[in-house]
Amino acid sequence: MNATDKADFELGAVAHVNFRVRCETLSHGEEVFLVPSGGLGQRKSFVLHTTPTDFPWYHTLNPITLPLSAKHPHDVAEGGSEGRPKSKFTYRYAIHRAGVFHRWENPSDGGPEQPHAADFPAEPAEGGEPVHEVPLHLIQSREVYTVNDVLGITGAPANIDHNRLPSHQGLQRAQNLHARHNSSDGALTISALRISANQGGVGAPVGAPRKKAVGFAPAPVSHHRSSGGTGSKSAPKQAVHLNSTDGLVVVSAFLPVILNRSDDGKWSAEWDYEMLLSMQTHLRVTRVGVVKWRGWHGNTQEKAGVPRNERRLVEECLLPFNCVPVWVDPILFGEMYNGFCKGVLWPVLHNVTSVYSNGPEDDNGDGASKISEVDGNEFSEYSLDDVEQGPIHGGRGREAELWAAYTAVNRQFAEKVVQCFHEGDLVWVHGFHLLILPSYLTRRIPMAKVGIFLHTPFPSSEIFRTLWCREDLLRGMLNADQVGFHLFEYARHFLTSCRRLLGLHYGMIPDASGGHTLAIDTAGRNVAVTSIHAGIEPPVLRQVLIHQSTMERVSSLRTQFPDKIIFCGVDRLESLKGIPLKLLGFERFLTRCPEWVGKIVLIQVGIKAFERGEDFHRTESETCALAQKINEKWPGSVHLQILHEREIRLQQRVALLRAADVCVVTSIRDGLNLLPLEFTIAHQDALTDLGRADGRKRGICILSEFSSSTRVMRGALHINPWKISEIASAFFQAANMQEEERLRRLSIASEFVTRVTTQRWALAVMLDLKGVHKNINPVQFSGAGLGLNYRLLGMDTGFTSLDSALVTRAYKKSKARLILLDYGGTIVSNDNLDSLTRFQMVKERDGKSVPTARMIDALRGLCEDKRNTVFVVSGKERHSLTKTLGDIPNLGLAAEHGMFISWPTPKTSSKRRWETLVPETDRTWRSLAVTIMEVYTSRTHGSYIEETEMKVLWQYRDADTEFGSLQAKELEDHLSKYLRSFPVDVLHGGLKEGGYVEVRPKGVNKGVLAMRVIKRFPDIAQKGMVDFALVLGDDHCDEPMLSVMRQIGRRVLEARPRPNQPLLPMPATLQLVDVSSCDNYVSPDLDIFTCTVGKKPSAAASYLNDVDSALELLEGLVKVSTRGNRFHSALDLASLPKMTSVGERSLSDGEVLGAPTMSKSLSMNTFSLGRQEEHVTPAKNWMTGLALAPIEDPEEEDDIWF
Hints:
Elements: H1 3-10, E1 14-22, E2 30-36, E3 46-48, E4 57-59, E5 64-67, E6 88-97, E7 100-104, E8 132-135, E9 144-150, E10 159-164, H2 168-184, E11 193-197, E12 247-254, E13 257-261, E14 267-271, E15 284-290, H3 311-318, E16 323-325, H4 330-349, H5 366-372, H6 376-383, H7 399-420, E17 426-430, H8 437-444, E18 449-453, H9 461-464, H10 470-478, E19 482-485, H11 488-502, E20 505-510, E21 516-522, E22 525-531, H12 538-545, H13 548-560, E23 565-572, H14 579-592, E24 600-607, H15 614-633, E25 638-643, H16 650-659, E26 662-665, H17 675-682, E27 700-704, E28 717-719, H18 724-735, H19 739-755, H20 758-770, E29 779-784, E30 791-796, E31 800-801, H21 804-813, E32 817-822, H22 835-842, H23 853-864, E33 868-873, H24 878-885, E34 891-895, E35 900-902, E36 915-916, H25 925-939, E37 944-947, E38 952-955, H26 961-978, E39 984-989, E40 996-1001, H27 1006-1021, E41 1026-1033, H28 1039-1055, E42 1082-1093, E43 1102-1104, H29 1107-1126, H30 1130-1134, H31 1184-1187, H32 1195-1198
């Protein structure tokens, strides 16, 4: 410490600190306050603010001044040098809801709430509560810092940014701070204190960073809990790397190679550098796809495709390229590629829907016949694919055939990928041709990390929903672990479609490298969504540019149009490319600026797009007509060339771009378009003195704002191609641009082109894919569904199908049993799945579902066993439960999620008596809640109000997805504000839970009911402690009950000695509750089974497939109870306690001495024992021999009841 710093410190130095906290789980209407642990001498708390742009980051508006006073001035840093006292500033974050204190932050940020209070406690950290710490000895006096936190994360080192002034002195002090930090505090790593400069300005030192380095706060803890049921600290984040041992399977519709066949039948191959996936890498890459064949094209059905007897030769030819061909029948592939992909998907993905037919000929398929008029040679020229001709426009009633072709080709691709896959490989699928391929791969190789990347736009949900196969396509993409797009605009449309069509949620989740990733939550697993624009390979283009043939072609073009500014365009002849709009804009420019006539020329290359059918022919004729019209007015102004794709390959295209001065792209909807990037590389030398020596005004792009490259080519002139005057203005601006501005724009455009190459783009995507959490405990993945509805479910370790035999054994040996059953979805088919049925049920326009006769008999049989205490816990009203189940003796009922309880009673003739779970003293809140809900119902179409005795619900499941969710959040905030003085809870269930906002009395849920039943168990069952519990539920309303019962079971297991047998982690969906009050009411030998009906993420330990499976389980338990009273096997007799003879055995509950004791056994012939004498000579008893060899555990015989 230098003398100045020491003097400042001893005089009571201060530092100014801004606080930022990342709040991922904060609900709508909640606020964050920073509360010091004590003694700043200022106000008690500091409110943090956010904006729509900053969310989820909350920050203080003004810096907080922290005193750096020394309590122990004699403290010396380690190493012997004089140091700063190691004092700390500690604080916590508090959450306010509706203007009042709601809770403190906690490690999981979702644990039990603290009691409400009017203000904060004086010492929030008292009692050892976790706090955030800022080590004051690491910060300097009179400096400004920013502390970055994550809500609930208190154990990680402080993440501090030093906002130093851009001066040499500040740089030196920062270096000193680094040195002291490294030497004096070995417990902290250098990343604990990040010192970075603000944006550079005047006076910034040489070499200082121009932009502030953004450092994320420590990542939130893992959402999985430790075996102890508490949140555990997340493991240190490991950087994700790709090395030469990593395997990658790249799947695309076509292989990135070009095949040739000589006249003597020899095959050869070369890389197709036109394709994005032809790049070379150090990874072990296997490419899978259909071959392109530039030699023999297969124009007839008899000779279509590669001959079967030569396919082995082609495979050997492709072996050095690590390419594996997929041999698909050409006619089938043509149906898939031309019929479905180009005819159906291509227009929709580009936000085009053909609602009106062009004429009656469309229905007759004349569009396809017009293509067939093209001779076979032209078809083979445009195709360049191993495909056969097929109809191309829309479904036209052929949806089933086209969809069948699409699925068949995807299945064949899946077979080939499985053959090439090795454990640990990454699978990267490309293009809209293979959208459902991940669905097939997850069945065969569920352990593989699969990514899919779309090189086309993704339409808005209103356009995408017009597809008849929309759900299948979305589910196919979501079966991948990562979905990639070139722009976030496309990713946003995909997210919206998933939300609107499938009801899924998305948000930011922690990733493997310590940052956060945008992901969709689907069936308990997260699908990452990335948006990274692809680039080009500048070295490859530079090699082409310096090639002799390229230079000769450039010279020829410049000689052909001497002393003229050359505008160029290379587009496929289809309406989406906007060539007619380009020509109209050029015509208007020449009309308004006649002085440029003869000084400029537009070279437009049109690539034949036969696959577009009628659209190609129409665009071609319109383009030719416009070019002819312009040349008639101003001869030589437009040079139109219509070429086959093979005639304008990379070498010819680069020569044209190099010769041109301005590139023009006017597409009205475009995915990946690399032409502007190639043009920029072709003119990058204009930034040097040598390149400017030619005196040309070159290097400017006119780029449509509907092209993906617009977002990355910031130096281009951006236009709206639908506005002809704007295109004409861009022509004028490019022709008259000053050299300084032109070079500045070219420099800006070059920044992205040189920085983001194809390899860097692929590396970024692969790192994201490799970083996907898969095959890591405690989550495992399980498959469910049939056909294309097959999907992966994220399950917790140990979540398996319920073992009925295990339940039976525990049931048989127990004496005090508790059975808790949900109603809808568990003992009766769920009547909430269909929205219309739900609405009719609420409005009492239709009957409600009732249990079947078999289910009623099963419940009655369980209740007849005096060892059983059975409860049906439902969300329905009590009159409905009484009507369907009220006549079953000894059956307990709980209505409206446990608010109303009817204890088991043998008397069913009289009216059932009900009591409430919590006292309901004030019901005036109902009218206020309904009044508020009516306001939102009137302005939210599709919503309605549902009232019961206990609660009031606002249902919005039928409303617009986005608008309904926004209105629900606002309604929740509104109700929380105006009902905060009433003893009620305001609950918001998202679309996954049915879409509702509910107001109910405070403290009412099925979990609280379960604890109440257990505490009353000795009274209602007239037994001791519970030694068997079976809990069945099916939806989110049952999760509190399943969570409570599972935690009770966990406490029992933890109390038992288990040497070297660690317990499995508790599931992430578990709702932590204090269940210690139930310890005195459960047996140490308790066997507890929690089960959800339906395979889905749950707090339960196991699952049953459906209601029928639940019925079979209950009927099996009834058989065990019945057999226990009437039937015995030899094994049962051997295990009877204290049995020396049949007459001297001990009596079970309810048995009468002298009554007939045995009937026909399940494993023995019929025999009968009548009344036995009280004293029988053992030697005369024929069963004595059997009793001499008792079997202690009759488990083997228990399975026969199935």
